[in-house]
Amino acid sequence: MHRFLLCFPLFCSSYWLTAQTPRPTLEEDTIRLNEVVVTGFASNRRLIETAASVNLLTRRDLQQRFGTPTLVPALNTLPGVRIDERSPGSYRLSIRGSLIRSPFGVRNVKVYYNELPLTDAAGNTPLNALDVRSIGRVEVIKGPSGSLYGAGTGGTVLFSGLAVPAGQSSAEVSALTGSYGLFGNSVTVQTGNDNSAISLSYNHLQGDGYRQHSALVRDVLNLTGSFVVSPKRTVSILGFYSDHNYQTPGGLNPAQYLANPRQSRPATPTIPGSAEQQAGIYQKIGYLGFSHEYRWSERVQNTTVIYGSLTDFANPFITNYEKRPDQGLGGRTVTQVRLLDQVLPTTLTVGAEWQRNFTISRNYGNRRGQPDTLQNEDELRARQSVLFLQTETALPAAFRLTLGLSRNDVRYGFTRFSRRPIIPQERTFTPVWLPRVALLRTFGPNVSVFASVSTGYSAPSGQEVRPSEATFNTTLEPERGINYEAGLRGHILNSHLQFDIAVYQFQLRQTIVRRSTPAGAEFFVNAGRTDQKGLEAMLAYDLAPRPASGQAGFWRVARLWHSLTLADYRFRESQRAGADVSGNRIPGVPSTVAVAGVDAETRLGFYGHVTYQFLNTFPLTDANTFQSDPARILTATVGFRRTLGQRWTLDAYVSGDNLLDQQYSLGYDLNAVANRFYNASARRNYVAGLRVGVKW
Question: Which pTM value belongs to this model?
Fold first, then answer.
């Protein structure tokens, strides 16, 4: 039995399917908006029965609303979620400010792909190795979720591959072209029958970039498969190989940004520029994972996964050249037991996760993009383990109680071989227990409220205990926090109006912050406390008649939606360079983010999407002496999608980004040395694409 979910940015449908049941097609997924089922916290329940802040994106949200095949614009429609792109392919994902002052991609967030851990034992998440054209669904759990997913104070992201319709085979080819040398193509082949489902895809993307020295080339080969071995046993596979490289133009100071935002970081009398040093990221990743699901009985089910990964990473930077091969290994097992059906129906979830990483880091001098003299050769060993237990109990009077608890253990080992004597070092953190309590009350089938208290814990990542300063930090302590949250969600007016609202307060202590040497290398320290308060809301209204009404009008979809994020993040008892910054706003977190959109699709096949995004100003330094510029971003996509005969489908589209032609920075370098905050985003630009599919 397999799950299939259909959704817009917040609301979707779910069906429990056998292998013989045909799955809805992409054309159908916008008109079946009955029940939203989420998999987060192992609940597999309707969203309205889930005591947590959860948002969802479907294949339509990821691949049709915006023209460029990237995760950035779709994730940025979700309240409380922010993904930056400082240069094409350089992503920085934040959930509720979880990236606070972090210089690299994903911090305090756990990411899974088809239930397999994508975030490794050292806290690295190769988000830029994924291609959105191979992703069918994204589920974002906001707030600490350590009671089931381990260390992390921000939240959890669950990626799922493309759904494979049962009883048919299909192939799709696509191509796109756009401004600033953008070009891409894709091939996807799928086949499904009563006992198996296989999807194989190849995706290519390249571009010259808006700024000087910001070219990108990415090739991704992706394989997913699911095989019903017996009525009780299902085996699945996930494998991908990504060859990804992009140039990093570097940050600009305010004067440089105003004079020429397209330039790369220029040279100074003592330090060469980005282009001169050929700064960039060259990354090859191979990932292979297996999943085994066994249903012991109607009451007991277990899913166990194992994975291995290999990474070849090279980073010519302005001041050095790093080469880093990496090996990852891990697994996760989850058992669910339905204990009671009467009186107090209870589901017990128990499991464990274990991960290990082995990394060799070699730092050289950088001579115009070529490694020079060896400076350091280090070995970093990372290990994480999580034991977790959760119960969900249906109480009288339509209440549902969730209790969760996990034990988290993080350890690092470090050896420097380039210096004598060779002395192995260890950094072991005291194992911690993370509880979570949540209570939900439903009011009929359409409205619910919930409240939760959860603890967050985040040990330093591998890039923090061994930063680019090339020291092993034995004094850095984990971040700890507690989150209080309440939410209201539902749908009214015959399900035309849908709403989801949450308020929270997260108190974080031992906050890990970034410091920089005069040469720009980073290191990390603990710096006091932060107080993070927020409100997140999403509203949607369907103008088209509901399918159940029996009306078949001109509009298949006509929908207005709006998401809002309000945040008040401030330092408490915090020092910065000898100055007290207590009470200051935390840099990098806008006080207001508003996103509004219109989705329309006619029964003739014409469709359109318009999205407007506003980001208020926010501080760029802990001292709040510099502020970002407000951003107003308008995007639109129009297209024509049609089924030709019984087998063929055609989808042609044109998309425009930054249609207001604003000069803005999609990713800022916070607390940057020499005030090099700005990474300019592209001005008005366009993409045109074509998809052709056939099924048999």
Answer: 0.92
